[in-house]
Structure formats: C-alpha cells, structure tokens
Design brief:
This protein has 4 helices and 4 strands; from the N terminus they run βαββαβαα. The chain is of the alpha+beta class. It has a single domain, classed as Alpha-Beta Plaits. The chain has a 4-stranded antiparallel β-sheet. A hairpin with a 2-residue loop joins strand 2 and strand 3. The chain is globular. The relative contact order is 0.25.
Amino acid sequence: MIVWVMYDIKKDKPRTRIAKLCKQSGLYRVQYSVFLGKLTTNQKDSLQLEIEEYIDEETDSVYIFPMSKDELQDTVLLGQAFDKNFVTDEVKALFF
C-alpha cells in the first residue's frame, strides 16, 4: 500500500527520531514533515508502534494515511506540493 506520514512534533529530538524512522521504513521525504512511500500492512503497523513511543500525545500530531495507487493518482497537488530538494524519481513514479 502507499502511505503518507505527516506530523507536527513540538520537540526537536522526537521529531528527528520520527523522520529517521520514516526513512528507515523506506519512505521518501516530500516536505519537511511529510513522507510518502510503499509499505506493507505489517511495516505500517510497526512504524506506528515505533512512532507512538516518541510522541507526546498532549502536544504532538501524527497522521498515517494508507491509500491505493488509484487514489494517489487522483490526488490533487497545487502550487509547490513537494519540496524540490526532497523529490526523487521514486516519488514521481508513484504518481504515474
């Protein structure tokens, strides 16, 4: 499945750790706090459990959105949807 991970984490240390977890899971950074990529259900569940260890539920927000390739291709991207410094051919390939 294709997965978006988006977060708003108050403290630097857990925010950095969550970014590393996303990258280690094989997700690609498309903006500073947004990752996109393909994960299996087990990988998504594992990532969720790991992220839960680092967030403060009173102040932090994390969104994990699974979707199909068809749903991704229906996604509307406006303006500078992706940070050009982060977008790779792998990310572009998900949309085509």
